Records
---
Amino acid sequence: MILYSYGPQEGSTKTINAKCSHCGAETMAITMFQKVFSLFGLPIIPYSKSYSLHCLNCNSNYDPNTYNIDIKSLKMNYTWKAFIGWVIIIAFFSWLQVDSDKNVQKIAAYAQSPQIEDVVVYKSKDNSKTPYIFFKIIKIDSEKVYLLASKYAYNKLHKAYLEAEDAVQSDFDTEVVEITKDGLKNLQVEKWIRKTQAKVK
Ligand SMILES: [Zn+2]
């Protein structure tokens, strides 16, 4: 995928009164081409304009300068096509935000009613280099939740999440750790993986 590119795209067109020296028609069209900086193929910043003049009757092309056309007075502004990338970029980040909000809501709901076999990825405050740890819930009673922590801690959330999703018994410590239900709610949980059928609405 092309990271960024510069290039012309066709902008707006206006008809003007000018006489074609080839066929004698009195009306010609001037087209503005806008050079645009694009990121991932999405136009976001226009940075220069060029113009071409052509006859609507015989299609002859001319350099507008030779016709002494006052291009500035035509006020040919950059068109929406030069900025269309912003629409897609903003939509993408809005979607990310909605997705993130949903994740937060899901975690809050799961933390209210933890289930055995849930796997939870959280961010520890103790280890700044490898703060991401996951654990599996193995037992729940009226006050406490019992869990097995992952053998390893991770420096990136996505790494911990990938491991947690496919975790097998040997990925966990054998020592059982207990935490109160309130303590569980207060952990900085990043992902809550529930594979059982009974999902919280
Ligand atoms: Zn012509």
---
Amino acid sequence: MAEPARIEIRGKNVDFYILQNDQILPRRFWSYDSAAVAAQRLEEKQLHRGAMIRPCICCLQIFSSSHRFNRLCTRCSEEIA
Ligand SMILES: [Zn+2]
């Protein structure tokens, strides 16, 4: 699985920006707080990428799949393993 991107906030006074894997994002922020909110949204987006709610192919229970190829709920994957 891909490593989550490293997100940092840099800047001073009224000029802040976000670094994502050492790349500066084009958007500028006038305060640390507004940059922090945007950084947090970025992180949340990454967390949810690929994850979705789907039925287990074994017991048909709805579960939260952590990645695209995860088709078994925790219980069934433990039983099969
Ligand atoms: Zn199941």
---
Amino acid sequence: MGTAFVTCTVVPLYLWHFKADAFQVAMFFFFFIATGLSITLGYHRLFAHKAFEARWPVRLLTLLFGAATFENCALAWVSDHRRHHKNVDSDDDPYDITKGFWHAHIGWILFKLDPEPPWDNVADLRKDPLVMLQDRFYVPIAIVVGFVTPAFLGYLHAGWMGALSGFLIAGVARVFAVQHMTFFINSLCHTVGSRPYSDRCSARDSGLMAIFTFGEGYHNYHHEFQHDYRNGVKWWQWDPTKWSIWTLEKLRLANSLRRVSEEKILLMQLAEARRRLDERLACRVTPLQGRTRLLLQNSGAKLHHLGERWTALKAEYAEKKDLQIEHARAALAEIRREVRHAFDLLELASAMA
Ligand SMILES: [Zn+2]
Ligand SMILES: [Zn+2]
């Protein structure tokens, strides 16, 4: 609340009177990216989901800069987050969206009505001495890395006024920006966007949200395949966190990157598209017009046929692995093309309905 208040009052007044030079702007972005990525790449994908393994320099830096976001120590953050995935959209979900947008965004932190749940789901992290060290010295690390360092760098650049600028811009305003970026994942990413993989929970995919959240906006995919190191699973989807992890692998600082197979992802999309189609065809409240119904039925028949062909092909592939590999690969590529076409047809039919 303090950082939000100062960012909305003191910071604009200060900028109006004294302006910010290029050094201060660069420092803001450096701290924003370093601390933001420490949450998405470190706290979230590495520590909470074990989506890859990282060597100690990566763990150390993400723990130092992660603390500087003032979002709690990694143990507490991960414990809450694992509880969110396990009990999503229920009372045991710490940031349960069914209690309202503001509860999921920040209310759950401001009004802790229930007793603090035990950290009983982070036994694996307790074995990491760096995580335990961060837990022990969390507050001093957060203050030194988050506030003292930008103030000190500002002092080196331009004396005491530089120190004040560093503290206000790369310190306070940056904490505010990173915190709300993270909170958006719990609020907006469970409200805005589509659900191409499953409608089992409220998590949604949104390219727009991905831009503001270092790629975490593909949240529907993430809730279905939480161990994948990618959230934006398609190569073109904006996900700087996945690109950073990939780069760390090339630098030999990360390994064992976990990926869900393309077939599994496509099957999931296929099942979800068919479920949506059946729902639409069964809807009697608004009778569909002749041509639309025909389009939907065609699409449904095609998807059904593709699903069956896929199952048969997989069985065949499993039996004669070596002999049929080229044949199976070509057939899978063809099915993928047909599925995409069926999706387009489905979309067109839905728009007409
Ligand atoms: Zn979520
Ligand atoms: Zn997650």
---
Amino acid sequence: MALAYSPRMSTPTPPRQTPLSLSPEITLRNRVVIPPMASGTADLSGFVTPETVKHYARLGKASAGLLIAEYSFVHLSGKSEALQLGVNLDEQVPGLKKIAAAIHHSGAVAGLQLTHAGGKTERCFSGGVLHSPSGIRVPVKDRTLEIPTAMSTSDIYDWKAWFIAAADRAVKSDFDVVELHAAHGYGLNQWLSPLTNKRTDEFGGSLKKNARLLLDIVKEIRSQHPPLLLSVRLPGQDFMDGGLTISASIFLAQELQTAGVHVINVSSGIGGWRRPGARLGEGYLIEEAAVIQRHTAVPVIGVGGIETGAFIDELVRANRVSLAAVGRAILKDPETWGKEQLHGGACSGLRASERPSISTATDGRSILP
Ligand SMILES: Cc1cc2nc3c(=O)[nH]c(=O)nc-3n(C[C@H](O)[C@H](O)[C@H](O)COP(=O)(O)O)c2cc1C
């Protein structure tokens, strides 16, 4: 009997298109994540506008597995730009529900990133308050920020309560995932980093103590909302002398795993999310993500200049990371990116000379001490 010729039957699913379960209830349909990207479409009080909903419906056209909506301030004192989204008031829930609905309509799992800017803001945005762990100016590349005020113990408990209340609002708004922003120099990063946390009480003085506030927030959200998936955006390193190193970040990732997070989204720290000068090509922060993935059982998201489906296939096939975040390449044209890079052939849009190789990758061995 002659066998029917069926090329489809012999074509394996590309790794980027394979599903990933994050919990018994929630499975991502593929390995692509749209990372949080501020859209500047909220109103001056942080409320969702029709433009915000349109923005997320547009991003949904990329068909990513997980779409994490932009950094949203948990309290006015943590706001860092004029048209930033807020999750600081119960009245924002109806608007936030529209974002979650737009994301779900696209077939993606819906995430919301929560942030407090700490000392990385200007008083004109944050109601006149500028708080940070130790009153140390937060170094940023493009401007000189004011010196913030060191927080009292009761200020710290306020932050904790604000993050927990904001997570509760995210759940009420139908988000499946809440991400705590502990990277890019914002508030929770300032707690983790030895550059900005010089406290000598129970909230600072050792890496474990520096992580106390973040871990307390994680544990409380986990206990209040067991089905909610929790992600932490963690610096792979601070990219600044004297800051968090990759070894510190491995320790933090393992603490987060013990505390029950479901995903670790590895980016950069106080130095900001942009490409470090010496890093070339796609995946400029993958070194850090891969080394953290090797040292934890939690799925890790890697990021940094990723543009092609072929590159994501190589990352997933080699188990370097579980998920790949694609920001600007999707932002430019979500629908085309989804068609060509996620659903197209593994090499669509790529000339042979552009095909990436992991043969020279070190999976972090070069950055480990
Ligand atoms: C317009 C824009 C806004 C961003 N806003 C956020 C944000 O709200 N939260 C965050 O963690 N990162 C933010 N980022 C960083 C991205 O999540 C991502 O890490 C970065 O763009 C690198 O990925 P890419 O090279 O794929 O764009 C933003 C980046 C861009 C371009």
